[in-house]
Amino acid sequence: MNVAHLTLRQLQVLEAVTAGGSMAEAGRRLFMTGPGVTQQVQQLEKALGAPVFDRLGRRLRLTAAGEHALAAARDVHARLATLASDMDALTQRDEGVLHLGILATGTHILPPLLAEFRRRAPGIAVHMVVSTREELVEHLLEGEVDLALMGRVPGREDAAGVGSVEQLIREPIADNPHVVVAWIGHPLAGERQIPPIELRHETFVQREPGSGTRAMLDEFLRIHRIAPRERLTVFGNEMAKHAVMSQLGISLTSMHTLGLELTSGALVRLDVEHTPIVRKWYLVHHADRWLPPAASAFRDFLVTDGAARVRASTEALLAMQEAQPPS
Predict the structure, then answer these.
(1) How far apart are CA 38 and CA 15, in angstroms?
(2) Distance between the two ends of the chain, CA-based, in angstroms?
(3) I need a labelling partner for 194 at 20 to 30 A (CA). Which of 69, 88, 166, 211 fits?
(4) Residue 62 confidence class, pLDDT cut points 50, 70, 90
(5) Domain 3-90 and domain 176-279 have a common topology
(6) How many angstroms from the chain centroid is the CA of residue 237?
(7) 99 within 8 A of 86, measured Cβ to Cβ
(8) What is the average per-residue pLDDT within 73-88?
(9) What are the structural domain ranges in the chain?
């Protein structure tokens, strides 16, 4: 048997002849001539290498080969119907699956945005992975995530041999201001316009190597020629905040990770000159890969309403801190 010679039309004719009981009835159902139906059946039998009907006078009865072919025909058409349904769902912007990658810092701004997006498109499921910047670049280049939210634009050193970062589209979403924070009661907590050099006596709680926040701190210390008393390395934003609250040192970190701590008074922002240091949040995706409708819908939401929400919450938090009187 040569499967390559089978066609969907032959299987459709087989189903129609079986359902109608005759070649003539199949022709009426499929808007085909009688000879056309006969030709399709003969070509199917030739491809199978066996007859599909026993012709008993004017009656047609399926042979064993015909029974198997009919079962296959029904299975094929059922699968095609499922495919058609799946394709219809895939092209709907309010259904499907969103594969999203984010940095750990992004977990502080993304949940309320996702909640609002899901309210607008409840049929979209979200699969989210929290990774390092280098891992997110790899996921994007390999097509494992549709979109990634990150705070520093990927560079050539992040491709790790997987592909070219030039293939990635980077769209700025919102400002990502970084400030210096300390524990309540820190000697500098009530001071205004603190010169950066005054921080030379402090211990800095810093993020792990490779972190965008760590790179920002390194640059800040270099520019202002600050040699801190000590630098304590921790992994992740939560550990950094807890280290500061435990009075192990001060830290430079994103305002977007500090909403709860600053509003509750668990931490205090130091009014250091040349801060906040403002970077950007970027939405990154692959230029040469098809962006599924679910991802496209989230991208459209994020660069418009989502960005406005982040901007409003950031401005409110900054204004609240600036309005606080010296302690």
Answers:
(1) 13
(2) 88
(3) 211
(4) very high
(5) no
(6) 21
(7) no
(8) 81
(9) 3-90, 95-174+280-316, 176-279
245 burial via Cβ count (<10 Å: 0-12, 13-18, 19+): middle
> How far apart, in whole angstroms, are the C-alpha atoms of residue 56 and residue 37?
18
- CA 119, 121, 125, 126 torsion-angle sign: negative
pTM of the model: 0.65
Fold of 3-90: Arc Repressor Mutant, subunit A (1.10.10)
What is the residue-averaged pLDDT of the chain? 86
Per-residue pLDDT tens over the stretch 86-143: 676 656 556 678 899 998 878 888 888 999 999 988 888 889 888 888 888 888 888 8
Which tokens sit at 314? 């950031």
Helical pair 64-90 and 8-20, crossing angle rounded to 10 deg? 120
Which of 288, 259, 254, 292 is closest to 98 using CA atoms? 292
Please give the class, per CATH, of domain 176-279. Answer: alpha beta
Burial pattern 187-205, b for ≥16 Cβ within 10 A else e, equals ebbeeeeeebeebeebbbb
**Tell me, what's the pLDDT at 162?**
46
CA 103 to centroid of chain Cα atoms: 11
How confident is the model at residue 150, as a pLDDT?
A: 86
Over the stretch 266-292, which tens digit does the pLDDT of each residue have?
999 999 999 999 999 999 999 888 888
CATH, domain 95-174+280-316, list 3.40.190.10, 2.30.30.40, 1.10.260.40, 3.30.930.10: 3.40.190.10
Chain position carrying tokens 């406005």: 308
Contact (CB, 8 A) for 280 and 136? no
Contacts of 54 (CB under 8 A, 6+ apart): 60, 61, 62, 63
Q: Stretch 240-256: mean pLDDT, rounded?
A: 94
Rounded to whole angstroms, the Cα distance separating 16 from 73 reads 11
